[in-house]
Amino acid sequence: MKTVCLYFQVHQPFRYRRYRFFDIGNDHYYYDDYSNEAILHKVSEKCYLPANKLILSLIKKHGGKFRVAFSLSGIALEQFSLYAPEVIKSFQELAKTGCVEFLSETYSHSMVSMVDPELFAKQVKMHDDLIEKYFGQRPTVFRNTELIYSDEIGEQVAAMGFKAMLTEGARHILGWKSPNYIYCGAAAPQLKLLLRNYKLSDDVAFRFSNKGWNEYPLTADKFANWIAKINQHEEIVNLFMDYETLGEHQWKESGIFDFMTKLPAAIIAKKGISFRTPSEAANKHNPISVVSVPHPISWADEERDLSAWLGNEMQKEAFDKLYSLKDQVALCKDPDILKDWNYLQISDHFYYMCTKFFSDGEVHKYFNPYENPYEAFINYMNVLSDFHIRLDAKVTIDPVAIELERLRSLIDEKDKKIEELEVKSAKKRTHKKVEKAG
């Protein structure tokens, strides 16, 4: 039985206003509220609301045979709560069907996994607490920001207790191997890896409305036939894409909603093919091999690496400056500082500084509030400078205090782990007593 695993990423950043040099130290509000609200309303009307309505109807129409997964960043959920609570309600309706899985990720849609395992784990927990609050699910499958993965990151994710993780089926990693199997991590063999089929995913996400494409127009039947013709021994086809593909990147007029309306029936009609969520797929299929990823990969651009965010000196300087403050922030209890800290970590800020103007240039212009990457860098550094001034006013850097706070956090985490193990042990003892009594 071949599995089709359909997953969508949902994220919108908080964009900064034009923050001038002379604002530093004088004005501590950084956000372009008008643009943030206007863009979110626009994308909600064109994508999130109609797409959720369509998916709900397809789940009901096909009696639960159509199944899908989402990852919603904590930042996106904050914006929905502020500007479009009806979007959260529509996702909650999907959650009630039992056919939709919500995945784990970093709260800020950040690149913290590249910096600090402890901070990474905290941000993941913060995200998953919010998912559980809104949708009643505790994620068991992890999807890092922009599908970023390496052996080291996989090891950290496995240590958090996740059973599976999504990443890119990058050609330079797989070589001759197919992405249409489940693999396992080199540093964490217990972690199952679901690899994106970038060819089929990008056929929908990027090429769907391209009239110069030799496969245009793409129909549901044609796409389902492509999946059916994949080698029968290949077990899983992972279709991972931005949710904005539906109605925003590919406009309604392109026929994308009609395509999605017909796709489930076209795939279900094929013998031996069914939809599964990532956790279901991980339970169904076993890894066929280890995948070694010594250097981080992502699903971005032709290189499938981190160059979209950390490919030039501006990006590296901003990134390093930001995370040089992490120990100082750890000692701060001010809610406004902590909120701004979360927003400063949003990966989009570094993406706007990208200087890759050639093959991937158009992608980097999408929803970019800046005229050029240099303007993005200057604006971000101005905001970061003011943030640093505010942080210094709240927290005096004391190496001893920082170390004590780190040790205190480790003790708290171990205490929580001991409590969890004691609860599990008590449940097992109770279960054994009941069995003996029976």
Supply database-style keywords.
11% strand; 438 residues; 18 helices; 5-stranded parallel β-sheet; globular; 7-stranded beta/alpha barrel; 50% helix; 5-stranded mixed β-sheet; single chain; alpha/beta; 3 domains
Question: What does this entry look like structurally?
Answer:
The chain is α/β, with parallel strands linked by helices and 438 residues long. The protein has 3 domains: 2-291, 7-stranded beta/alpha barrel, CATH 3.20.110; 310-394; 399-438. It is 50% helix and 11% strand. It has 18 helices and 12 strands. Strands 1, 2, 3, 8 and 11 form a 5-stranded parallel sheet that branches. The protein has a 5-stranded mixed sheet with strand order 4-5-7-6-12. Strand 1, helix 1 (33-61) and strand 2 form a beta-alpha-beta unit. Helix 1 (33-61) runs parallel beside helix 3 (85-96), helix 2 crosses helix 3 (85-96) and helix 8 (220-228) runs parallel beside helix 9 (256-268). The longest helix has 39 residues, at 399-437. It starts with a strand and ends with a helix.
